Amino acid sequence: MRPRGDDGTVLVLTLGLCALLLVLVGVVVDVSVTVLAKRSVASATDGAAVSAAQALDDDVFYAQGLSGQVPLSDARVAERVADYATLAAGEQPGLRLDGHVEDGAVAVVTGTRTVVLPFSGWLGDGTVEVRAQARARAPLVPPGPG
User: Fold this and answer.
1) Measured between alpha carbons, how far is residue 57 from residues 6, 48, 106, 140 in Å?
2) Cα 14 vs. chain centroid, distance in angstroms?
3) Contact assessment for residue 91 and residue 74, using Cβ atoms and an 8 Å cutoff
C-alpha cells in the first residue's frame, strides 16, 4: 500500500529538471553563438588589417622614398578596408569594418557586428554586439643574396 499524499511528486521534479536543462541549453547555445561571432569578426578584422597594411601611399613614396616600412594613408587604408568588408559581407551579415593609420605605417582596423541570440529574446532584446581590433604593419625586407 502507498501513501496517498505523494502522487505526482516525481512528475513535478521531472518537469522542474526539464525546465532547468532547457534553460542551460539556451545559455550554452547563446554563449557559443557569441564566441563564434567574436572569432569570425576577429578573423575578418585581421584580414582587413593585413590587406590595409599593404596599401602603399604613392604620394609619400614618391616624395620621400621608402624608409624601412610601407607608408600608408588614411584614404588608401579606408579603401582597402571597404573592399575587404564587401568581400566579407556574404559570410558575415551586418559586419562593419573601419580603418585608419597610426604613426604613418600601422593600419588599425576595428570590426563590429550585432549578433542575434537564438534563446535570449525572452530575457531582453536578444542581441549582443561583438567587437575586435587588429593592427598590421608591412615592413620592408631587403632582398637576400642570390
Assistant:
1) 81, 17, 12, 14
2) 40
3) no
Q: Three-class SS string for 46-80?
A: HHHHHHHHCCCCHHHHHHHCCCCECCCCHHHHHHH
From residue 131, alpha-carbon distances to 15, 67, 110, 113 in Å are: 39, 33, 7, 7
Q: What is the pTM of this model?
A: 0.77
What confidence tens digit (pLDDT) does each residue in 17-37 have?
Answer: 999 999 899 889 999 999 999
Helix (H) or strand (E) holding 133: strand 127-137
User: In which residue are the cell numbers 569594418 written?
Assistant: 97
Closest to 100 (Cα-Cα) out of 136, 58, 59:
136
Q: How many other CB atoms sit within 10 Å of the CB of residue 145?
A: 3
